[in-house]
Amino acid sequence: MSDRYPIEITDEMRQTMDTARRQGLQKDLRTLAANIRAAADRYDDSEPEPEPGWRAGVEWTLLWIENTAAQLTEGRP
Questions:
Q1: Is the C or the N end of the chain the one with fewer CB within 10 Å?
Q2: First to last CA, the chain
Q3: What's the pTM value of the predicted model, to 2 decimals?
């Protein structure tokens, strides 16, 4: 406890703050994935036709983002 902030931060409070931070990051990553997916769909419909194989790269990136987001709260209360 400090003189400036006369409260004690408990382990439970720290855990709650950590959970909130992880959930915020998870939400941000999922928003990023949705934005990438929407941009890819627009690009897919563009002229001239996109390069072959670009969609596989997009799908791999989206999978990586989703796996990363899932790991932020996996096995946590």
A1: C
A2: 26
A3: 0.77
pLDDT tens figures, 37-51:
999 988 888 777 778
Q: Are 1 and 7 in contact (CB under 8 A)?
A: yes
- pLDDT, residue 76, reads 66
Residue with tokens 């409070």: 13
DSSP H or E stretch at residue 61: helix 54-73
d(CA 23, CA 75): 13
Residue with tokens 């036709």: 49
Question: What is the number of other CB atoms lying within 10 angstroms of the CB of residue 66?
Answer: 14
What pLDDT was estimated at residue 1? Answer: 53
Residue of 42, 43, 5 lying closest to 13 (CA atoms): 5
